Amino acid sequence: MDFTLRPWQPEDAESVAELADNEKIASNLRDGFPHPYSMEAARAFVASRILSDEKNELSYAIDIAGRAAGSIGIFRKADVYRKSAELGYWLGEPYWGKGVMTAAVYLLCRMAFSRLDIVRIEAEPFARNRGSCRVLDKAGFELEGVLKKSVYKNGALGDSCVFALIRNDLDWEVLGRLSLPELWERFPVVLSAYREEWARFYALEKSVLEHFVGAENIYRISHIGSTSVPGLLAKPTVDILLEIKWDTDLDALKDAIRRAGYGLNHRPDKPWPHLTFIRGYTAEGFYGQVFHVHIRYPGDWDELYFRDYLRAHREAADLYASMKNELSEDYKNDRDGYTAAKTGFIELAVQSAREEYGKVYDTVIDDTIG
Questions:
Q1: Helix axis angle, 343-357 relative to 302-312, nearest 10°?
Q2: Minimal CA–CA distance to 81: which of 125, 26, 35, 121?
Q3: Sheet holding 57-64, edge to edge
Q4: What is the pTM of this model?
């Protein structure tokens, strides 16, 4: 379901009063969230959000079809905890189970790491609130522990869970000083059975890129590589092909994607503008989901044909998986060698795909050129 995160407006109070007046919501939040939820409480809440301190918190309405359907915010802590922030949210019941909150949490956390001087975001849902725990898990948070009998709500004691998301783009300078052999040792070629979460993380990351890069600069975004082929053995890296419009400001683009938590990897061997961005690499090794974003101008790219061919031809996908499994042993600490060894197979598959499909991804020249 489509949504946007936007600043609060006075007229949102009516929607808040209607949707927040729900015992199912109030029973899973702290006592500061009233029940019943009056119009007076809604007006006070919206007014407080409009006047919020933007230097220390991000607070937004979750807008669905022009209506404030819920609330989400990240609030920086103080004193020795000032590098940490707390996440809070609620969503109107008509919008539950549609993936809205997971996407909203995922996006806002990236915005917060970009705009607030923090390295950690934490949330403490009631353990019985399985829906909220699933949201955090799907958004990339890790469960750090369960606090036994830590909450007292509606006359009963209960457990709470501590979830945390750690900023993982702080080590680019350290990684930049490593030699290729050192990098390959730290980040070996490791294959994984197919995971359905890869498609979900692609969709979430697509929303992040659209937010930071701007839809006006994007021609097409595509999930490519082995993680885009259901059932295929793969390095657990979500590869994204981001085709930008011809008049996109490249300096602004680099800055935007860096703010989204990526490191720049110059690739002169790739088509102009020779840009690849990476995420999920730290001085200690891989952390969280790994992403590669390949920047191209609009084109009839081989990667799209290769993906489609493997999706449509199970026997070719199985053969490719078998070959990769063997190569991963021979080139465990040589990523470039591993990639080069697959080139012949890929070229033949792309040729077969083009013969079978024709020019599926041929582009119309953008009228902003020249």
A1: 80
A2: 121
A3: 4-6, 57-64, 67-76, 84-91, 120-123, 156-166, 142-153
A4: 0.92
